[in-house]
Amino acid sequence: MKETIFNFFLFADAQERVSLLGHILYEVDGTDEEKLAFLKVAAEQDFEKATFTKAPADLTIGAYTARCRLGTALELFEYAFESHATRTPLFGITIIMDGKPAINYISDHSPLDMDNVNQTMGEKSVMDDWLAKYTRGDTFNYADLINDDFLLAYKLLFNNKHYASAAKLLMSCIDSIAHVEYGYEKTRSERAVFSQWLDAYVDLKPIGVTADELWELRNGMLHMSNLDSNKVLKKKTRRISISIGNVPEDAQGTFDNVWYFNLHSFYLAVCEGIGKWLQTYADSYDKFLIFVERWDRTISDSRMALYDPSR
Asked: Mean pLDDT throughout 172-183?
């Protein structure tokens, strides 16, 4: 049976930024298998003949892959169907990277199976797909994911009285989720996304410290395991540190001019902030796409690849 089938293209540069989308229509007869085989060959031969349209702002290969993970990549090309009745077309999507077809994996258009990707690409390891693991029915369990990836380890350290290490991990947790929210910092002169996230989602007033003071503590603890960030040494920022329990106001600053805040109270405030933050992703499909794209790059104790020599 002859029908209209589609080849779609994403034109990206070496930095994986997608500037253009493209499409070509074909009238082809034969079985579905024959038509898909035709599209595969045509994609490599005809991509320069595509009709181009400007890609959505800030579209990257990572953002496209996030759509593939959710089975919604075709949404990018709905504009091409406006003059055609079909809503269930036969189609192929090909990435053109730096002027050349980049084809190293072929899949159908259901949500991308990362285990199959790894097997096809020759990986000798097995790793849980976090998106599949924490999706149950139509619900994605954000809270379980954050708990398993960050908070379980924090609680293990805290409950075993490894308080400095627990604080370091909590700072790293904030770093990670702030990156998911805001992306990479553009320049060194801009305010840290760590501080931006705390101001946006965490009530620090009861803790008695500011986001920027915590940023300086984070710098000292993670980079040098001390309290001496550059701004603290230059007395541009108050020297703060953690305490287990509350330090009386009249005892604050009596040793090395340090102001102490309760680590557990801070942890609870951050957890409440994480809940507010996650709700913004649950309420927005577009933000969830960003979440999927950036969490795919996040590493975790709960998501380690296990070597399997039989693969």
From this structure: 94
Written as one letter, the residue type at 195 is S
Contact 96, 9 (CB under 8 A): yes
Residue 148's domain comprises: 133-295
Type of residue found at 184: Y
Domain count for the chain: 2
The helix/strand/coil state of 141 is coil
Higher pLDDT, 308 or 281: 281
Dist CA 84 CA 234 (whole Å): 66
- Alpha carbon distance 72, 296 (integer Å): 17
Strand ranges in 102-154 using DSSP code E only, listed in sequence order: 125-126, 135-136, 139-140
Residue count (the chain): 311
**Per-residue CA distances from 187 to 76, 180, 220 (Å):** 31, 17, 20
Is the separation of the CB atoms in 177 and 202 below 8 Å? Answer: no
Written as one letter, the residue type at 102 is: A
Q: How far apart are CA 122 and CA 116, in angstroms?
A: 10
Dihedral of CA atoms 157, 237, 213, 220 in degrees, nearest 10, equals -30
| Residue 101 near residue 44 (C-beta atoms within 8 A) | yes
Residue % of the chain over a pLDDT of 70: 86
Q: Are 269 and 217 in a shared domain?
A: yes
155 with 25, same domain: the answer is no
pTM: 0.82
